[in-house]
Amino acid sequence: MWQWQQIEKLLKLRPPEPNYYLNIPRVMYMPLMQDQGPGDHLAQLGPVLYACAAHVTEGSFEKTDISLSQIKSLTSIVDGPLQRLSLIIADSLARRLLCPIQGFAGALIHPSDYFEQSILQTARCNLANLSPYISTGFVTINRAILEAMEDEKVVHIIDLSCSTSHPRQWIKLLRDFHGRQGGPPEVRLTVVHDNNGFLADMRSLLSKEADMLKIPFQFNSVIGRLETLDFNNLRNTLNIKYGEAIAISCSLQMHRLLVVDDNMSCSGIGQLQKMANIAQLKKMASLVYSPTSTLNYPQTPSPQCQTPKLLASFLNAIRALKPNIMLVMEQDANHNALLFCDRFVEALNYYAALFDSLHAVIAANPRMADECARVERMILGEEIKNILVCEGVHRHERHERLSQWAMHMNRSGFDHVPLSFRAIWEGNQKLMSSGLNGCHNKVENDCLLLCWGSTHLYSISAWRPHKGTTSGSREQMIVQPQSQIIWADN
């Protein structure tokens, strides 16, 4: 946690300690001094990243080149989570500067083209194995499903988590159903995923577990991604049968349905705001950090005045299925702001916390270091690039905060279902079992927020279709703000 305390200071997440300013160099582009230690180099990284983002926004090749050279020098001194994150951000900033050049954006190779599918799938599974937050999400979601299906005889679980899907979640649920008073229900599980081999392995693993537990079980696979499903024919696509109780789990995927053409939201006011944000980035860089520079950063809101059509279509289709419960887990961050400056500040803070949490996991499990490095580059790194480099319909990683998701769900005719004390308690127990001091949770409006230090990383919420009407009321809104795949056994 020592390094995360330093990172929080650098990224302006908490007020400085007395006399801290006296020990920080004020000149941004001075040559690196030979007698500076790792702590001094770490202290310069944050300001240089802010300065580089400002230069990229201005379109200055010369100034950006100076900043990128400084970042490379600073990250070569020691290895740590902020250094590794800074290299990914530097790569993203360089790409963003070059994107306006004709033909450059089209020449970029998509990750799916240069990562082997099996290796990419292994990295996805390793993220679930490494992250205490995703494991906590599985536990909390499972408990909410068990409670919603307490007296049901035929249960159909629909896993729309796609690339985040993991058989470990459903193995645990099958075992919990096995121990249910009165006996287990008949269980049908439908999983949407774009990897046929993954689905085949998952089917085999879960079918063997169900046979061992003597639970009637049927596995249905749907090839695709959430955004490619036919929402006009969702009942047939998911093989829904009348009379069965339905539970829907959607982890870290719904933000991909927020895609809009951002150019439609640009205006003269937006350009003025862009200029103001450039000035603010420069101020944050030159002052190194101040107690309020991030908290009072003049961010613009997410561009949607209304729920985007793709998300609205999806939620309308889900509502028509009349599920008993729908569980949503999402990254709790404002990465859907229209302006790049806003997204940069939010992404730097958010991923610094996420990288540091994984660094703490590896400190306790050094043998997982190689797996963690691949997760940082192949999964989190590509998320960051999408947030910082891409615009419009090409920007899919549009994470939003819990209050925004509550607004979308309510507008689409869903009522909030409070997570039970037991679901929250079991999630907390799972999170604490990681043994990481920085991990903790917060309960906000009967939803669960999973945190590292002072940073919210993920939100978990539960919903059901509003009875009697086709749309929700605004008053109900929450206002607060491979090689081979190796499954973990627990």
TrEMBL record:
Motif position, VHIID: 155-159
Keyword line: Transcription, Transcription regulation
KW DNA repair (keyword) present: no
Family statement drawn from the similarity comment of this UniProt entry: Belongs to the GRAS family.
PROSITE patterns cross-referenced by the UniProt entry: GRAS (PS50985)
Region (SAW): 389-464
Protein name: Scarecrow-like protein 3
InterPro entries, sorted: TF_GRAS
Lineage: superkingdom: Eukaryota
Pfam families: GRAS
Classification lineage: Eukaryota, Viridiplantae, Streptophyta, Embryophyta, Tracheophyta
Organism of derivation: Urochloa decumbens
